[in-house]
Amino acid sequence: MRGILPALVTCALVFALVGDVPPRISAAAPATPDVAGLVVSYGDGAFSYATVPLDGERLDGLALLKASGLSVLAIDFGGYGQGVCKIEVVGCDVSACRMRLCQTASADSPFWRFLVAGDGHWALSPLGASGVTAKAGQVYGWAWAGGTGAPDDLPLPTLDEVMTRSGFERDATSLRPALANQGRIPGSLDEHPAWDRYGAAGCILVAMGAGGLILVRRASSRRGEAPS
Question: How far apart are CA 20 and CA 23, in angstroms?
Answer without folding.
Answer: 9
